[in-house]
Amino acid sequence: xxxxxxxxxxxxxxxxxxxxxxxxxxxxxxxxxxxxxxxxxxxxxxxxxxxxxxxxxxxxxxxxxxxxxxxxxxxxxxxxxxxxxxxxxxxxxxxxxxxxxxxxxxxxxxxxxxxxxxxxxxxxxxxxxxxxxxxxxxxxxxxxxxxxxxxxxxxxxxxxxxxxxxxxxxxxxxxxxxxxxxxxxxxxxxxxxxxxxxxxxxxxxxxxxxxxxxxxxxxxxxxxxxxxxxxxxxxxxxxxxxxxxxxxxxxxxxxxxxxxxxxx
Length: 264
Prior knowledge:
By secondary structure, this protein is of the alpha/beta class. The chain has helices spanning 26-40, 54-61, 74-86, 125-128, 136-144; strands spanning 44-48, 66-70, 93-96, 116-121, 150-161, 165-168, 172-179, 183-190, 203-207, 247-250, 258-259. The protein is globular and about 40 Å long.
């Protein structure tokens, strides 16, 4: 695995081939960052379910100001720290070994690294169906929307398996959908008044059929696997330029079925 572009281009990263993974190919990552590049300059990034740190480190290489990494798995966390040392980016990062579902998202003494302006949210696929009103995962996504955690114009890249079923809290809306053959990446932005519970909005229910594209991008044919991921009590302690065949959908606020849900 390597950094693809930017000041750290071609630098190798450590991976954990023994983990249960949901690999993202280099060209899928390349395509994603083509969309994201304008948002990365001097951005404060948070890489949640970070694995060995590929997305956050790629962001730093492309001009992000900082990255907070949240990862629970011991082996992945160790490799993440080694990658940060190899790339000499310690002054720009905070590596936090904690449960992403239970965390406050606010590491102590890291005020300069917040609020986050770009967030990678990449839970294990088996957890996605658990994003339903009243669950810990749902509440974690509500916490993430607080203005003390994320900037008003934050971009959240939320990766799920193709045609996944889940419910998003009302404080988030889907601005874009990037569709690939095996995965969908939801480009989330805040609804207005997210910190007030988004009482004027309804939760978005995704049943795997809400959004369809005219064509799918077959990432299975686009190169080597480059990303290893691991499974991630409120805890305050501590692919790019050569392929653009992603299917992108601009999503309006009324594009989904909805259901009333109280935000906390």
